[in-house]
């Protein structure tokens, strides 16, 4: 079994996942609502929104879509995407890239459990944690 995160956006899915692919690498696959066999049943205003996107990085998968109901979208709350990296330079690179124009709750720093740890919300409202544990604390 694998567990993968699935995010919901309100029209920013394409921009968010294009940004995540730039930061994290990997391969991106996107399908719009206009490409659905049921596109005729979906309001024209939502046709350019993302029905499903997946970002594959190695054997990891992050997925998402855009909401069709603007009034019901409440943002992404109550969870974080947690990245576990093997070295400090990669933790620093990811923190700088993903937190740009976001809101930092915890700067990338050494903690009692990690060589480096950070918490932030990116420009799209997604909460992230970066955790880097290496054998020799630096």
UniProtKB/TrEMBL annotation:
Pfam family membership, one: Glyoxalase
CDD domains in UniProt: PhnB_like
Gene3D superfamilies documented for this protein: 2,3-Dihydroxybiphenyl 1,2-Dioxygenase, domain 1
Domain Glyoxalase/fosfomycin resistance/dioxygenase: 2-130
Name of the protein described by the UniProt record: VOC family protein
Species lineage: Bacteria, Pseudomonadati, Pseudomonadota, Gammaproteobacteria, Pseudomonadales
């Amino acid at each position: 079994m694998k567990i993968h995160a699935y995010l919901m956006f309100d029209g920013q899915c394409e921009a968010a996942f294009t940004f995540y692919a730039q930061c994290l690498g990997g391969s991106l696959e996107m399908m719009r609502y206009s490409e659905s066999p049921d596109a005729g049943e979906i309001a024209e205003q939502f046709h350019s929104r993302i029905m499903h996107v997946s970002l594959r990085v190695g054997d990891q998968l992050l997925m998402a879509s855009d909401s069709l109901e603007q009034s019901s979208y409440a943002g992404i709350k109550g969870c974080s995407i947690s990245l576990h990296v093997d070295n400090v330079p990669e933790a620093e690179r990811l923190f700088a890239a993903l937190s740009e124009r976001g809101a930092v709750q915890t700067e990338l720093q050494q903690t009692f459990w990690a060589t480096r740890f950070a918490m932030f919300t990116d420009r799209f409202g997604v909460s992230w944690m970066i955790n880097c544990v290496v054998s020799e604390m630096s």
